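Sharing a chain and its predicted structure for anyone who wants a worked example. Both blocks are below, sequence first, tokens second.
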Amino acid sequence: MPLIVVASTAELDSPDLAGLEARSVVLKPVERSALREALAAVLAESAGAAGAAPATAAMPAAEPLGAHVLLVEDEAVNAAVAQGYLTALGCTSVWVKDGAEAVARNAAERFDLVLMDLSMPVMDGFATTALIRQRGGAAGRVPIVALTAHDAANFREACLAAGMDEMLSKPYTLEECARAVRRFSARSASPTRSAPRAEPLAGVDPSAIAGLRRLRGDGHGDLYSKLVELFEASCAESLAQLARALESSDLAAAAAVCHKLASSAANVGAGAFARNVRQLERLCKAGDTPAARELSQRLAAAHPALIAELSAMRLRASA
């Protein structure tokens, strides 16, 4: 069984760890990226070593599964394990820590599968699933697999009744995760779903942000942090103005708001959001009110996830 040691620098010198044969060491305080990389490396190594083992013990995924997965999990270690599994399976993933973030992100971005922790504070997995089913999302009806430490026999029916499609009992294995992803990514790739993957409205452009980080403000630290702070303050108000203009069918006013909002979004590296705001401006100028209102609602739904992503980038930039 591969072993990953999580310890502080002082703990590494402890005699208690002297006899352990660890494949990797992650230093405290634990950073999600470091733990995820350690897990992915160990899992990949284990999967390669399993080539000489019996077929039943080998990794079931011969090729990358390629699914895009929304992971809803409030516990960082559990999230790192799940993302390590998904990386080993050739999937991409987005991790959110609570139900409100999950609802917003699902509305703004197309996912093949949602992995949903049931036991979260404020809004648990059942309530989050109910909201996702009620409001829909960018991908239509997305499959949801519950993640729980509870006994599967007692909770599976409750999960299905709540609108989930399956459940995994923690701790689950890489093979179990692969089976769930393969089952539902196959469903999402069926001929009945021919629509292309929607551009993630909450995505950010790392190359643009890297350039902005190199800039310096007027003696007050990096310019990027200042730009994000200004955008956070103005974007919500711009979206509110946009909603009011479209509600009153004032397309000229809506187009004017879009023109300013697109520029400010692009200036903080929110390229996908900016492109869609420009598309909304074109719809307003063309007089297509129904399409403009629909896109405006998608942008508003993506706003919380975008701000969260930009805030994370700002914190990393100022660290």
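Comments welcome. Residues 9 and 27 are 7 Å apart (CA to CA).
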